[in-house]
Amino acid sequence: MARTKQTAGRTTSGYAKPAQLSGRKRHRSSSTENLTSRSSSPLSSCPPSPELQLTTISKESNTFCYLCHDGGRTFICSNIACPRIVCDVCINVPESIATRLGNQEISFKCPACHEKEERATHSKPMPYFAFTQVVQGKSVPACSTPTFVKGVCERASKSQVRGGPILIVHFVCMGLNTRGGIPRLLNAALEEYYTEDTLRYLEVVFDFGTRCKLRHWQAEAQRLATTIGEDTFQQKIFFISVHSEVTRGDLFAGKDEGGDDVAVLPKEFMDYLFAGRLQLLVNGATLFMLSCGPLVAFPQSICSFKEALLELRPAYTIAFGATRFIGAVIKSFIVAFGSRVVIQGHDLGEVFTDLLNVSVELPMHTDAYLFQVEEQMASGAPNPSSSASNIKGMRYSWYHTHRRPWGCPLPMSCPKCGSIRSWSPSKQGEDTSGAPGRISTCQSPACGFQIFSHQPRSYQVIKLKVGEGMGWIKQAGI
User: pTM (2 decimals)?
Assistant: First the structure.
């Protein structure tokens, strides 16, 4: 049956003393070895249409038409693996089929599934018959003429308009100013597509800098988990706004009895923050670390952080490498994330570079880190549940021949003569030991001071379609 439904249409780093809050021995590892572990919406102005009756569906379908992102009278794709819907404004419904749409034998195939079938069979473009029926065991068009698609898809063919429910939780370290923060921007960008029932935003301030405060937080975390309720969310997004300690990469836990800042290893921090049943909610989520670069600058802190991720098992984690990270520079990134990943349903790993490319201020300010928890079948495992996990870490650095050769930012002033932005386009060269890299030379008269930028050992260059001498350097094995 062709199923239908009606839809209406900022942080800095600092110094802090190390803390032991739970009595456990503080262990630091200098190893960076690989770690393993055993509706109503303002979008639509279309009034409800009585022509098609809403049917009960057994799968999660989108809320809005994937072609125009609007609502109204929509058709649900009959492919059980496809959540897309198409509205009657974007697709022409022949009169001969309009009265038969409620019949059990009529099926609807969306344009995206039609294109997917063509790619799978490597066939040439074929006429699109949206409505089919089974005759003598074979699927045949339900009408004699192909279906005309009136809509214009301005997005990738893999796009959809996901209907939620969405959970956004922002954890804020006590004392941080988050006015106009990035998580709120994401929530505002999504409000047009989701209702109060399908988009939930929570902001939670934490301080577990003493053992007494830690016990209080653990109880508070349990109450928070109860408030959130059962994990039925299509997307879960966690933001953590926290200071990072500049000499070790530890994360601030809060204030001690004397009012001084205290910090703990990233693994301990994540254990404390996601106490009790909160830990279960992180599984499969997207995690944003709104913290400064020391977190990913020290082998010990990276190792500890990855250990925490293996236990929590978020699908993706994003962190940033600037020593004094300013959250405002990722505004374009977070809005694009909301559109491409949350709404349209693209995999974050596949579109991460695209999101970086639309971020105007981010490239010159900070490197970006993407961590992914990957499931691996254990050798000789009898069933799919017998699996192990590992962390794939990638670093994205912006390179520019004038200012960031091999992703290494050049100082604004020449250390020798003090001239401003006097660096020449870098050229290939070698240092005194013969290691490859690029040489930047001060062009001020009678100066000629040179800076050598080393070439990464293992990297992939992602060039832009426009512009020469710039792009992203992707390094794996972080």
Answer: 0.77
